[in-house]
Specification:
globular, 31% helix, 334 residues, 7-stranded antiparallel β-sheet, 3-stranded antiparallel β-sheet, alpha+beta, 10 helices
Amino acid sequence: MGAGLGGGYGRYQGFYGLISDNIISANMVLADGSMVTVSETSNPDLYWGIRGAGHNFGIVTRFDMKIYDYPAAEWYFITLVFTQDKLEALVTQVNKMMGSGTQPKELMNYFVYAWNPEISTIDPVIILNINYVGTQAQAQQYVAPYLALNPAYTNDGMLPYPEIAGATGTGSNDFACQHGYNRIQYPVGLLTYNISTSRQVFELFKNQTLETPAFNLSTVAFEGYSLEAVKAVASDSTAFPHREDNILASILAVYAPDPALDAQAVAWGKQTRDMLHAGDEPGRMLNVYVNYAFGDETQEQIYGYEPWRLDKLRALKKEYDPHGRFNYYNPIIV
């Protein structure tokens, strides 16, 4: 539910929307100690606000969510690892597959820049994961162009949905969720991949991690979920502001705790995000997913640029948390 208060991306969002789009009601403890129920018919203004900015207003103690039958008993997954010389061809193909946010609801992909010394000790690699709600045969039309690029490594199979995250490196027991490391994250929402920018970000990643080996567990990640059900929800119907974004990109600088590296990690994060944003379509404002935000972003970047949206959020904050008791994480400033 925590992710849902900020929107909540996920593999099933092409079918059912964001986590926040599926909240029916919630019981909350407010800053003054009172308890309320929020839904379409009970405190509807607060119900609007918790679906995208919910950590600002109280503590959720109970919630009702929409649930669904699995559309398929098993998913197909494939992991492909590419050497750096395939980067431009790979990103070009991902752009084609995603179709400017129109990829099928059954299909999602994400790729990362990372180090894998079993593949290369002199360059980072690109690790691409494709997940498909259906059979291997049904997924092949999307997978075949990547196999034609001659990946250095592949692994695929069919699994029940709960096992897909672990099979593709994003499970709760995988490194990304382990304790004991500093993680500096800078996200940005994009419409499409800029090929030359993708190379620039890769080279920056390579140089930073070679110059500072303590950063060699870091990644740059590009999440490409299906958007069919997300974009079907009216933008003004919840507090979540970034439904026009097609891609969620972010750098995750990971290193053992060392205050001497903090400023360098922050500077690298900002530089990477600035590069990615500059390479997006001209004139776009910087959109930041609140659940990944570092904390130095503007209110507009996190919560949306429409004046009416910020006015509504500030009014809710003033009413339900006037003294800022819930200001720990990327708060709305009244």
